[in-house]
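FAQ

Q: What does a record look like?
A: Structure on top, sequence underneath. For example:
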């Protein structure tokens, strides 16, 4: 029960008791006054009655008439005359119920009125005794009217008191609601500073304490953020050009060429500078470094439309541009622009292009290429560019595999799979190596449409993206996951990796929202969703909309393919992921300082770090020394 309800209930009970006590005292006092008044009236009336009965005592008929006449006046409940000779005894009693008064009220009030007796004398002789009891019906009626009025007054008073109490408590406890919201926000890893201080001293102290705690956590986050930036620059950035270095490029390449991320592959460009020693001799080391920095800025400018690009200076005279989803024609255009910009730099600095020049090797790769193949063929393209005396650029593009399925063949397979739900759901565990328990299960799916129509996810995701069928495909598999019984998921957590194309599709949000609204309450397991780190960085607002949807239905959210790409990790505060998944190669490549800084950030935000593609026990042991116990990959088959 909330503090507001507890206080409201306690004070309400107190108010009701006090008002009831006041009403009860007033009612009891009025009852006693009315009974006393009736008794005194009866005493006064009996004197007159004895005179009348003395005059009629000689005639028994007149005596009865006198008693009846007096009794009918309505002031008496009982009237009895007993003569000394016993011949003229007479009793008159009114046993009729009191009109207009409920029986429960009569039983509750239960008025007891004593009888009044007096001698009836004729001259000096006592002829009898008369006894009378006042009519309590008068008191019942008066008390009932008073009771109804007091009841109305009680209800009105209590209502006014409770309304006033509610308003007063709401005003007094309003700062406490803000503290509660602030505390709940902290649990959601959101940090709110209350600028307006409450008037109540105790609440003011609480707010100051909460603000200090939030500021401290934010300070820890900011220090971690700055430390990660510094360590990232030391580990992965070339100090002269501020571009990434070879170390970062090699860590990033596997995720950039994964088939599930890119539909058509992309282009990698190797750039080799000749004449660097001339550049240093003519301009000096500092001015030469400035030329390199200007050239690096031009490289960023000519391909700024590609969000997931990686531009690296792999050594003193070689640069690499990794451009996912870049076709041959735009890649050629980019290479031409790089040539032009470099020649402009030479001209601006009065340098001879015969002594200082660049060569460019371009390799248009397919999504199935491996890292080794990628680098070898790009290097061959650069070698051919250097060997060509007439052109300093060479593009190597592989022809399509003759055995590969065509676009329309894939369209038929995927559309049939969507129509008939030929998708088969698979679940891979994420294990906590320390407790040997499953953290969650990652869902993927294959196509199983018959003997000749069995395909892995990596086989059909690229053509599905090209055909614009990703969203429909995901909705079918998600509907299957949510509406069908999957016993292996009971009482567990299932995580779904959402493709970038699915999130970018404007229809996906409404489809998911409708699906959750109908089935979220009937799920036997918990849901979690993942997006890639690079997509979250470049599309934070879009991802935030999905995160809010997940939160609405109690689903969690995580980020995969984390490589520390961002220069500012405040996007993690905004998106509030439950976990980050990073390749074990990336995590193991971090320096102790860099890893400590990253863990400061994740700990301050309540984010778990999960290592993916963990293959050996040796890798696992190294990760555990870094306090990373949750893992995915081949190692899970070993530690189950």
């Amino acid at each position: 029960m909330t503090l507001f309800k507890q206080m409201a209930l306690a004070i309400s009970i107190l108010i009701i008791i006090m008002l009831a006590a006041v009403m009860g005292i007033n009612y009891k006092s009025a009852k006693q006054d009315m009974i006393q008044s009736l008794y005194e009236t009866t005493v006064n009336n009996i004197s007159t009655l004895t005179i009348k009965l003395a005059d009629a005592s000689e005639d028994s008929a007149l005596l009865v008439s006198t008693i009846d006449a007096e009794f009918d006046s309505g002031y008496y409940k009982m009237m009895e005359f007993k003569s000394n000779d016993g011949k003229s005894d007479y009793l008159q009693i009114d046993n009729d119920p009191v009109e207009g008064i409920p029986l429960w009220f009569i039983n509750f009030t239960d008025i007891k009125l004593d009888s009044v007796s007096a001698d009836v004398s004729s001259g000096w002789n006592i002829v009898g005794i008369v006894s009378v009891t006042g009519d309590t019906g008068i008191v019942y009626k008066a008390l009932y009217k008073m009771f109804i009025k007091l009841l109305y007054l009680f209800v009105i008073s209590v209502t006014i008191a409770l309304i006033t109490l509610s308003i007063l408590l709401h005003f007094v406890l309003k700062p406490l609601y803000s503290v509660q919201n602030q505390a709940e926000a902290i649990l959601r890893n959101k940090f709110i500073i209350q600028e307006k201080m409450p008037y109540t001293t105790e609440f003011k102290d609480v707010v100051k304490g909460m603000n200090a705690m939030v500021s401290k956590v934010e300070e820890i986050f900011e220090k971690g953020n700055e430390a990660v930036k510094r360590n990232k620059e030391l580990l992965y950035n070339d100090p002269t050009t501020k571009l990434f270095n070879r170390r970062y490029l090699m860590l990033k390449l596997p995720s950039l060429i994964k088939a599930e991320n890119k539909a058509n592959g992309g282009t990698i460009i190797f750039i080799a500078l000749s004449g660097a020693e001339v550049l240093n001799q003519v301009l000096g080391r500092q001015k030469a470094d400035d030329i390199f920095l200007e050239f690096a800025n031009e490289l960023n400018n000519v391909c700024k439309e590609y969000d997931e690009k990686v531009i690296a200076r792999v050594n003193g005279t070689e640069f690499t541009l990794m451009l996912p989803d870049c076709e041959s024609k735009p890649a050629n255009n980019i290479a031409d622009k790089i040539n032009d910009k470099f020649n402009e730099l030479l001209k601006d600095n009065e340098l001879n292009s015969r002594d200082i020049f660049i060569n460019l090797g371009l390799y248009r790769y397919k999504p199935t290429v491996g890292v080794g193949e990628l680098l070898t063929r790009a290097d061959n393209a650069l070698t051919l560019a250097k060997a060509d005396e007439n052109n300093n650029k060479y593009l190597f593009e592989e022809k399509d595999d003759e055995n590969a399925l065509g676009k329309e063949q894939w369209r038929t397979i995927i559309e049939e799979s969507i129509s008939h739900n030929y998708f088969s759901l698979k679940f891979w565990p994420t294990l906590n190596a320390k407790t040997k328990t499953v953290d969650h299960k990652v869902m993927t799916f294959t196509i199983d449409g018959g003997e000749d129509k069995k395909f892995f996810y990596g086989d059909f995701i690229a053509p599905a993206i090209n055909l614009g069928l990703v969203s429909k495909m995901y909705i079918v598999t998600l509907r299957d996951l949510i509406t069908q019984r999957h016993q292996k998921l009971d009482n567990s957590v299932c995580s779904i990796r959402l493709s970038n194309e699915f999130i970018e599709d404007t229809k996906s949000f409404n489809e998911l929202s409708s699906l959750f609204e109908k089935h979220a309450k009937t799920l036997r397991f918990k849901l979690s969703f993942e997006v890639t780190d690079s997509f979250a960085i470049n599309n934070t607002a879009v991802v935030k909309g999905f995160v809010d949807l997940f939160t609405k239905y109690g689903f969690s959210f995580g980020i995969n393919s984390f490589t520390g790409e961002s220069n500012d990790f405040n996007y993690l505060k905004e998106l509030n992921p439950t976990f980050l998944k990073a390749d074990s190669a990336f995590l193991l490549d971090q320096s102790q300082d860099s890893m400590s800084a990253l863990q400061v950030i994740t700990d301050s935000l309540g984010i778990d770090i999960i290592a993916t593609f963990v293959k050996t026990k040796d890798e696992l042991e190294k990760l555990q020394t870094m306090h990373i116990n949750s893992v995915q990959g081949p190692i899970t088959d070993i530690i189950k």
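Q: Is there anything notable about this one?
A: The longest helix spans residues 3-55.
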